[in-house]
Structures are given as C-alpha cells and as structure tokens.
Specification:
The strands form four sheets. A six-stranded mixed beta sheet has the order 2-3-1-4-5-6, with helices on both faces. A six-stranded mixed beta sheet has the order 8-9-7-10-11-12, sandwiched between helices. A three-stranded mixed beta sheet has the order 15-16-17. The protein is elongated and about 120 Å long. Strand 16, helix 12 and strand 17 (about 435-440) form a beta-alpha-beta unit. It starts with 5 loop residues before the first strand and ends with a helix. The protein has helices at about 20-25, 70-85, 100-110, 135-140, 155-165, 195-205, 250-265, 280-290, 310-320, 340-355, 360-375, 410-425, 455-469, and strands at about 5-10, 45-50, 55-60, 90-95, 115-120, 145-150, 185-190, 220-225, 230-235, 265-275, 295-300, 330, 380, 385, 385-395, 400-405, 435-440. The protein has about 475 residues and is α/β, with parallel strands linked by helices. Helices cover about 35% and strands about 20% of the residues.
C-alpha cells in the first residue's frame, strides 16, 4: 500500500484563462467567482480538492498575473506569495489564444521560483473537432508534459490530477494531532472600511489584498489563524453597498457570497469607519446578521485617526443608534497600528461558547416563570394569555420554544421583552435570541355531541311538557 500524499497546489496564469473554473471543479464547489471578465480574482482563495484518491491537496486560486489594472502590482505580490508556499504550481494558459509575452514572462518567473510546474492548456472545448490539438506552440514555454484540459467540461482534468498527485510529497506517517473545531468569523462591512487590513492584522501576515480603492475584495476569502491553541477561520468578505448603488454584476455576486458567509459563520465582526460613525447601511447589515442568527460584534476601525473630542462624539453616536440592539459588543481598534485587536480573539471565543446555550428544561422554565411574574403577558380580548412552559430547541443562535394559549395574540413589544430578558438572565449578550411559540389546541374544539335516538325522544318529551305548562 502506497503512502498517501499531501501538499499545496497553486493555480497560476494571466487573467481570464480559467483558473477559478478549474479551482471550482477540483474542489467541487462554487467558492471562487467565475465570470468571463479579466481581473475578477484578486485575493488568494484556498480550498480542499475533493475526490482525488486519498491525497490531501490544498488548492490556491490566484489572481491574474501582470494585469493592466492599477491594482495589478498588489495582485502580483499575492500570486507570488502563493507560489512561494506551494509544493507544486499548475500554470494555466488559454488554448483559444496564441501565446503572449505575458505567458513567457510568467514562465520565466516560475522557473526562478524553484517550484515544480505543470502546464495546463485550458479551454480545449473551444477548438473545432476537426483539428488536432497541437501542443507544440505551448511547448515553447519550456514545461513538459503539456496537459490539454477543459475546466468547464472536465476533459483531461483526470490526467492532470494523476500527474499532480504523483509529484506531491508523501504524507508523514505519524498522524498529526487533530485540531479542535474551528470558530468561523465573518468580517463584514461597507467598502473601504478596513476589513482586509483587520484580517491581515489579526493574522500578522499580508494575507488579504489591501488597496486604497473601494471594491478591492471580491471573493469571500477564508483565513485560518491559530491563537492560544484555538483555531479561528476569519472570512474576509466584499464590501456591501446600498442596493441602489450596486449595478455591476461582479459586485452583486460578491455581495451574495458575503451574505452567504454571514449565514454559515458562527459569529460576525461588523467593521465600520470610526471617522464616519454608524451609518444607515451599517444598521441594515446588523439586521442581516440578526436574521441570519449570527452573533455580532461592532468593530470601529481607524480609531487612531480621531482626536479625543471626535472619539467621544463617535462613541455617543454609536450608543444612540444602537439602542435597538444594545446587546451588541463594541470594540474600538486600529488595524493599521494593530491596537485593540488582540482582545477580539477572546471576545469571539466567548461569544462562541455562549452560543452553545447549555441549559436544562427545568432551569429554562424557572427563568420563564421569573420573567412572566415580573411582567405578566397582556390580556387579549378579555382573556389571559398564558405562557405555560418552555424548552430549548437549538444553539447558535439560542432558540427557545414556549408553549401556551393564545400565543398568537402576543404583541411584538412583549416578544422583544421576552428576548431581552432571556438574554440578560441567561448571559447571552452578543447573540440574537429566537423565541418561537406553540399555541395549545382544545382537543374538543369543533366537536359536536350527537344525541342517541333515545336521548332525542327524551328531549322532545321535555320540550312538549314545557310548552303545555
């Protein structure tokens, strides 16, 4: 039995050659944005290849090298970081286009990197069936063998994967210790508030692309950070603007992925620009997080840019606007100066532990009794609303089901009171509480007591007797 292989494989090439499509096919996912537009991928996107025998392969999707965008130098740096950490590079070129000077430049850079390279000639499905696929032109790049593939339809991908796995290093025979479950954290916010800078500061590495231009981040980029023997998965997301200002199709896809990351993560860091304060769009994002059932922490970034009077004004404005959700923790940080960020790890871990919501039914009912005794439910149509008992339904978010009668007549204000009191008494600050109700049903409702023939005759005799009187 051969030993399993493992390693990191980077997908490299110029823009729009199909790297992200190949990444999605090998990972069997749609994590990487795909569109027929150059320069779509910018950050390094990590994923695990699926269905590749027993090999443990980590794939890195990268941005297009030597693009004409103003941000291209920063993208190139991210690509070369991926090449440096990879055990193997798959150099992807486009079969539908002739070789360009950029392809030769990339080939020269890869040769200097001392990393093994496989050449994948993508988009062979665009070549007419009557012509043989000639690899001679692409052999000029100096990499052999050449693998003709179609990332879209899967042609030739299996042969590429076989060769790829054969060149990876053999996995260490001694198994590594299994790490505990990671805490996933979505980093959300409006464009250009410093989300990527914050993730880089937390990771103490230039992991995410940072550029002074709104809309730099497009994919939801997952960054694994180990701190105090705990694993955290921070997901850097694209900036979410107001719906009316979102017209570009790429930005729309980016926002969809950002909101999807919000739903799949345990907690969320909502990053705002402290110099701008809490604006309307930030409040909408808090609503999104609450609806998604995600714990929320407000992170006011760029705190170093404010003087003392501006800081007091910012704190007052945030407290005033957050009165509807005063259970949200607030942190004032500077990602640039790396001040105030270390405490975020502890806060995220505390929120994660709180979200487990470990409580017995007896304890929960004692709390419900305390809440309803302090402030009983209102009367509906001259009938008392009774909340009889409660039990836990789910964790993260903490979900409670309360049984009672006429619960559908409870006003929204009393439901909010229940949520706030459960949060206060059970120590669930930072989490949205979900309280559902189940109305008691009268088992005899709608049932008619039918009289037997003998009872009907008896009833008729009584009626006649009363009429005679």
């Amino acid at each position: 039995m051969t030993a399993p292989r493992s390693g990191v494989v980077a997908l490299v090439g110029r823009p729009n050659v199909g790297k992200s499509t190949l990444f999605n096919r090998l990972c069997r996912s749609r994590d990487a944005l795909v569109l027929d537009r150059p320069g779509l991928t910018r950050d390094r996107q990590y994923g695990r290849a699926r269905g590749i025998t027993d090999a443990d392969v980590t794939l890195v999707d990268t941005g297009g090298l030597h693009d004409s965008l103003t941000i291209s130098a920063a993208i190139d740096d991210q690509v070369m970081l991926a090449v440096d950490e990879a055990d193997l590079v798959v150099f992807v070129v486009n079969a539908r286009e002739n070789l360009t000077t950029v392809d030769f430049e990339i080939a020269d850079e890869l040769r200097k990197s001392d990393t093994s390279v496989l050449l994948a000639v993508n988009k062979i499905d665009g070549i007419s069936a009557g012509n043989e696929f000639g690899v001679s032109e692409f052999s000029k790049l100096g990499f052999n063998p050449v693998f003709p593939i179609s990332s879209t339809h899967g042609h030739g991908v299996y042969q590429l994967v076989e060769s790829l796995v054969a060149q990876l290093p053999v996995q260490d025979a001694t198994p590594s210790e299994t790490s505990p479950g990671s805490i996933s954290v979505a980093v959300i916010g409006r464009p250009n508030v410093g989300k990527s800078s914050l993730v880089n500061a937390l990771a103490d590495d230039n992991r995410c692309l940072v550029f002074d231009e709104p809309g730099t981040t497009r994919d939801a980029v997952r960054v694994r950070i180990e701190k105090d023997e705990r694993n955290f998965d921070f997901v850097d997301t694209a900036g979410i603007r107001r719906k009316g200002k979102t017209t570009d199709v790429v930005e729309k896809f980016s926002i969809v992925k950002a909101l999807a990351a919000l739903k799949s993560c345990h907690t969320a860091l909502l990053v705002i620009d402290a110099s701008e304060g809490l604006v309307e769009q930030d409040l909408h994002l808090i609503d999104y997080a609450i609806d998604a059932g995600t714990a929320v922490t407000l992170v006011a970034n760029k705190w170093d840019k404010l003087d003392s009077p501006a800081r007091l004004k910012c704190q007052d404005q945030i407290r005033r606007k957050l009165r509807f959700a005063d259970w949200i923790s607030i942190k004032y940080v500077s990602a640039l100066k790396k001040t105030g960020i270390v405490s975020l790890f502890d806060l995220v871990h505390v929120l994660y532990e709180r979200g487990a919501f470990e409580i017995s039914t007896h304890e929960l009912n004692e709390v419900l009794k305390q809440i309803t005794t302090s402030h009983p439910p209102p009367v509906a149509q001259r009938r008392l609303i009774r909340l009889r008992y409660a039990h836990k339904v789910a964790s993260r978010p903490p979900t409670i089901l309360i049984h009672g009668n006429q619960t559908d007549r409870l006003p929204a204000s009393y439901v909010r009171y229940l949520e706030n009191e459960f949060r206060r008494l059970l120590g669930l600050d930072g989490w949205p509480i979900v309280v559902n109700f189940k109305k008691s049903v009268n088992p005899f409702s709608g049932r008619k007591n039918e009289l037997t023939p003998r009872q009907q005759k008896h009833r008729a005799r009584i009626i006649r007797h009363r009429k005679r009187k």
